[in-house]
Amino acid sequence: MPTSDTHVLVYRAKDERDAALMVQQLEAEGLAVSTVGGAASYGFGELPSDAFEVELWVERAFEARARAHLAAFDRERTASPRAPWTCACGEANDGGFDVCWSCQTARPEAAK
Fold first, then answer.
1. Model-level pTM?
2. pLDDT per residue over 36-94, tens digit each?
3. Cα Rg for the chain, rounded, in angstroms?
4. CATH assignment of 7-77, given 2.60.40, 2.40.50, 3.40.190, 3.30.70?
5. Distance between the two ends of the chain, CA-based, in angstroms?
């Protein structure tokens, strides 16, 4: 478990899925991440929303790098959605797809 002497909290995920995505982003940048929490997601009944939260901690020396990367990633994933597009096979695809769901052809560069 991280300690506040050596590690710093850089992200509080709403649930384990959100945490896994952010851990993946930080690890892809070469940062070691420790997680705390999330076990309450296996509980039943009425639990407060913060019972599902997962904290992401990194070494204090890498705080700025981790925060900058997470902020950039968050801006990218919350940016305006891209327009839907039609594949060469004729299938209509949602703007979030980079590959046609029907024939697996890559989205044309001009449509990005």
1. 0.61
2. 987 654 555 565 555 578 999 999 999 999 999 999 988 887 776 788 999 999 999 98
3. 18
4. 3.30.70
5. 42
